[in-house]
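To whoever is on call:

I kicked off a structure prediction for a single chain this morning and the downstream step that reads the tokens threw a length-mismatch warning. I double-checked the sequence; it's 451 residues and nothing unusual in it as far as I can see. Pasting both halves so you can look.
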Amino acid sequence: MLKLLISGLLVCTTCLPQTPRRPPPPVKKPIAISKEPAVTRDFLIERISVEGTKRYKPEQVSKVSGLKVGDVGSKEIFDKAQARLVEAGTFSTVAYRYQPTPSGKAFAVTFEVQELDQVYQVRFEGLPRPDAELRDVLLASDPLFGALVPATEHVLKRYVKTLKDYMNTSDVAAKVVADNAERLTIVFRSAAAPLTIAEIQFTGAKELRSEVLRNKIAEVAVGAAYSETRMREILDLAIRPFYEAKGLMRVKWAKITTELAKDVTGLVVKIVIEEGLPYALNAVEVDGWNPAKELLDDIKLKTGEVANFDLVEQGKDKMVKFMQGRGYMQAKARYERTYNDDKKTVAVKYFASAGPQFTFRSLKIEGLDLLSEPPIRKMWGMKEGKPFNAEYPSKFLADIREQGLFDHLGEETKAKLNLDEKTKTVDVVLQFKGDAPKKAPLILGVPPPQD
């Protein structure tokens, strides 16, 4: 009976009207969300900027980085560019930043660099190629090579290797040398002892005789290691002023050649001079500290006459002394020239800078005994608090010499000036060195000591 009931239910169920079955909704795949910012995508480089440069142009820095506009960029690529700039050895720090451009489809990358402060001029000595050629070789190997170069070990080794490879020699060395008390220079030279200057010959000289020129330059040039660059520097320092004193402003060292000396070890340097025509002085101006203009008459520069740059140089020195005589102890002066090569004229413009005014504060006397010091102090005429005259202490000592107050007053007797930057005051120390007073007790009214 139970089986029949179940069968009947099943039959009835199959007899019910059918409802169409709906397919299940499709399963949506999750959207992939990158954890990396969009900036890490490999976009093209649209813009390269450089910040912090003083000596170098932005295009020089970007060239060393290896990046170019239009190349693919990425963090890995920018890291490598940064490493190349660090490897160059020219910067103390190198950083960069990058971001998408407004279009969102390219990169703008910016390098932030800090240049090394210790950089020096370069010259070449004793190498078998002209200086200009060697400079071109170094510039081709390093876009940052220029008039001033850092003297880091890495940079110098790289430049030495470049020169060795170019000249196919191992005979190249680099050294930092002192040309004078104020300037260091990087010298690339033969590792062997360089040939020195044994003799100098001049041709083409008319205004100054060749023997006069030889005498003027022999003291500073003969015996020095030769390089054409250094030779031209010596000529500019030792010979050019004598020509400019005669108005020959465009004198040229037209050609410099060398040959081995016959009788001694060294080089004979032959210099061809082109003196040019004399220039006339057509204007003299002073810019800066107005009282310095009062000196124009004293300088004795006359327009319309042949320019004499001995007088121009003396005028600069007079301006400095004039300002220092009024308490402007940090006074400076310089001048610029403006040439008119068509008319063969030159104009001079002085620039005078006075700086702060200093006053006299105190006098100290060293080297005199208790009997001699008071009358010397009484003779001192500069008053405390008044503008300091920088020439007065030396003139004061010269006056003492003239009066013969001391026997055999030593050459080391001098005046020492101590400037106080904060208070803008000057302390003077008179340092006497020599024999005991000769006539001071009698002249100054002090009774002579009793035996």
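Update from on-call: the warning came from a stale cache, not from the record. Cleared it. Sanity check on the structure: DSSP finds 13 helices and 17 strands in the chain.
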